[in-house]
Amino acid sequence: MSKVLKCMCEECHYNQDFECHADGIEVESSGDLRVKSSEGTCCRTFRHK
Predict the structure, then answer these.
(1) What ranges make up the beta strands (E) of 1-49?
(2) Fewer Cβ in 10 A, N or C end of the chain?
């Protein structure tokens, strides 16, 4: 599994010093199903601190 190198979501439980420490992440499209950039995605693994 790939390691998440950077997480800028300071409110996420898994973010420690801007690194994701979740065992794995789930990413999905946010909006229509034709994603063209990272802005069209969201992390479903997010858990508020």
Answers:
(1) 15-16, 19-20, 27-29, 41-43
(2) N
